[in-house]
Q: What sequence folds into this?
């Protein structure tokens, strides 16, 4: 049985709590378990049974895949308050891959076992929706990682390009097009536009028909180093 | 308005159809559109408005991201009968990245626009669940691609690419260029050409102006396992 404090944590962590029937609430309160894992311990892997849904009370988890040669690629990390869903991948029919989950520090975790989660998920569409939404968030994390792995720091390259151009012209206004920057940098216009829009939202530059104006050279410079 | 044949296709493609109210069904039938795209056309990108949910009646779609050097990384392809959901990423709050979707061949598509899909999704939990389950399937595709990119040696990757292309076209002749293969595989043309020349010397394929012909599918397959 969970301690009252852990029960509170469980309830607050699960957005579908109010959608559960009284019986489902009771089941969950009775069957969820508090588990402790030591730093470095593997909590979930494709070789063992599906660990279930993990609510991180304390500590940090790391999710990764392993290559044939034993190389580890970290996909994302989870913090206190986060919920690990890929450790319940056996419950999610649309997820057909498996990952490793390690305790990156000592961890205190509330675990909803796979059979229970599978039952709740099939009985209650809001539980199922929750699990797939969470999976979509992790999808976003993985896409971010993929871009980091494949595309190295374009923000730095663009920042230094803009500063050089401004220095060359002696004015914060750089009269050019995204297309021309892309050509000069050996990139694609879409990529340049995306990063310039990001710079603009961050207040580093302003964009206009005539070109690009550097608004905050100091912060732009700090991107490079 | 959709033709009766397209309406049938719409209805059969959407697993949540029977969960819709009469009014929602009517709305969907009235507002879904048949769209045609020419080979190579970009259907969805981060720069344009969210295209919405795309039901592929005929043709093939390719989903990819672009690197800072303008290199395209194909994430996955979609076949007739598949549904493209990341083109409606603006509707999915848990998805916070964007991709490009191109018509790889001439395509006939039934499109459910984003505002309509957003409305249905907020009114009907089964529509929302459907979209996240579909996103989870694409997550699985991306994980597969990620492993291909990171882990599998290039000869295996190229062998499995060629076999898949031949299976897709139903012919041992794959009409394509080394450049296009490189783009689809997230590689460089030089690397593809070198490996194809090696395959050709080994008698696995023959190379011609028109494309690549698979000569020994059995040995090509044995490379993969």
A:
């Amino acid at each position: 049985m969970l301690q009252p404090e852990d029960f509170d944590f469980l309830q607050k962590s699960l957005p579908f709590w109010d959608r559960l029937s009284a019986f489902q609430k009771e089941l969950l309160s009775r069957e969820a378990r508090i588990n402790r894992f030591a730093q470095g311990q593997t909590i979930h892997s494709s070789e063992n049974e599906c660990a279930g849904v993990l609510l991180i009370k304390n500590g940090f988890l790391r999710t990764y895949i392993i290559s044939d040669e034993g190389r580890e690629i970290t996909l994302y990390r989870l913090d206190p308050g986060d919920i690990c869903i890929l450790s319940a991948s056996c419950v999610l029919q649309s997820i057909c891959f498996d990952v490793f989950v390690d305790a990156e520090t000592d961890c205190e975790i509330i675990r909803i076992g796979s059979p229970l989660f599978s039952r709740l998920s099939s009985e209650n569409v809001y539980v199922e929706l929750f699990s797939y939404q969470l999976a979509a968030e992790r999808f976003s994390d993985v896409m971010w990682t993929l871009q980091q792995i494949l595309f190295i720091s374009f923000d730095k390259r663009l920042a230094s390009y803009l500063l050089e151009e401004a220095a060359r012209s002696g004015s914060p206004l750089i009269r050019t097009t995204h297309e021309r920057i892309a050509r000069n940098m050996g990139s694609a216009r879409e990529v340049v536009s995306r990063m310039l829009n990001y710079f603009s939202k961050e207040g580093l530059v302003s964009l206009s028909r005539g070109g690009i104006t550097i608004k905050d050279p100091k912060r732009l410079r700090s991107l490079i180093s």
